[in-house]
Amino acid sequence: MVRVNRAAAAAVAPTAEPVETGAAQADATAAPDRPARPRGRPRKTHSERDQGNRRRLIVEGAARLFRAKGYAAASTRDIAAAAGMRGGSPFYHFESKSALLYEVMRQGMAQAAASQRAALEHMGMDAAPRERLRALIRNHFEVLLGAHSDFIPVMLYEWRSLNAAQRRGIARQTDAYSAEWMPTLDALHAAGALRADPQTARLLIFGALNWSVQWYSKQGPLGLDALTDQALALFVGNN
Amino acid sequence: MVRVNRAAAAAVAPTAEPVETGAAQADATAAPDRPARPRGRPRKTHSERDQGNRRRLIVEGAARLFRAKGYAAASTRDIAAAAGMRGGSPFYHFESKSALLYEVMRQGMAQAAASQRAALEHMGMDAAPRERLRALIRNHFEVLLGAHSDFIPVMLYEWRSLNAAQRRGIARQTDAYSAEWMPTLDALHAAGALRADPQTARLLIFGALNWSVQWYSKQGPLGLDALTDQALALFVGNN
DNA sequence: CCTACCGATCGGTAGG
DNA sequence: CCTACCGATCGGTAGG
Questions:
Q1: Could you tell me if A196 and A238 are in contact, meaning their C-beta atoms sit under 8 angstroms apart?
Q2: Which of A224, A220, A214, A226 is nearest to B3 (CA)?
Q3: CA to C1' distance (Å), from B90 to D2
Q4: pTM, 2 dp
Q5: Distance CA B122, CA B116 (A)
Q6: What is the pLDDT of residues B129-163, one digit of tens each?
Q7: Which of A147, A137, A157, A119 is nearest to A14 (CA)?
Q8: How many CB atoms lie under 10 A from the CB of residue A39?
């Protein structure tokens, strides 16, 4: 058993999650003393329809800038501009810069967990442990290096910028994500293919994968499938 | 062959390097029209004797604060206070905050490269590849997690805060550090113990090791020797 | 969501 | 290396 500084141990995904703002869904049970309204579902005004969109633009811009410059170096002005707004406007959607960072991480983890779950369910329960590990690694690389891959790198490298309460929230997500790896690693260890203690192996493996954010280039010769093959060979061999 | 975003691939050490300030070593060939000076080596004044010490205090404080809070979030005022100085005084020793960051990384890499070289030479050329890899991994963990381990984590996680010229300087150090791993990895690959392409393996292995900065705790049950055993088992098995 | 503004803090400098 | 200071920028807010 290894004591760890929470989180830091998982990693997750960033394709745009459908964001429910809540505010965009106008309340149907309006005050009864108002003038009569048209029946049926209230039509959304232009600004209501855009609410979710604007918010999403802020979150995506924040993810990109937090990743490129770091949390402290990316100003809320930069983020506003990236979303096509003026300086103070992000604070209409988020109460603080810190809340915006949290939202980037939360959405990233939610997406990563969802795609990991889908990848595992897609194989069925009877798949060989080695193939399950392949699916986990492949999904992890997709989440880190694939199409919309800013959210999880931000989570991985801006952890210290969260306050204690925020860390607890994200840690719950990363713990669940990590836990899904353990049955597969335990099975591979029992079969002799994985030759380190499964808990420590998980931390080392996550490190090997997460670090790819620092060196992987889409222009390079190594695709994500080939990279997955290499990682699999390194950790559990070729057969 | 894998194209990488330079650096990011190595890692190095932080125990205090004896810093030659140059300024501390008073020039013996003084102007000839000065009044006669006492013969022999000139005595250092109080401030001359302290010069190197003060500078080192700044660098060490900067390393600690850059690691704890990140480069952008650690102010030069914080650093001055950590070195027992007033606000503007670090700029007497360094021309900019950025130059201070560079110096932290440069010293860290110099120390790491030195201890790695010593570790390899200590074994001799005829040591088994597996034992050479053990020595490399053990030194790397020492550099990352050992006694004075702030310098290299700063280098690993603040790379993007350097400008282009600075990156080239540090990249030269990290490239040399990384290159020393390749003969050993090639040999292990040829012998069948390392089952991934050696270049890709090096990147994945460095990731696994470097990530330990995020989760390793000295209060935990795993010492650096045991951790080295686990990593070795994961990458090249137990025998 | 914009305009206009606030206090706080920052990296850096002159002058001693 | 300190004192005193500078312009710039920052996160955040009031008021519409």
A1: no
A2: A220
A3: 11
A4: 0.83
A5: 10
A6: 999 999 999 999 999 999 888 999 999 999 999 99
A7: A147
A8: 6
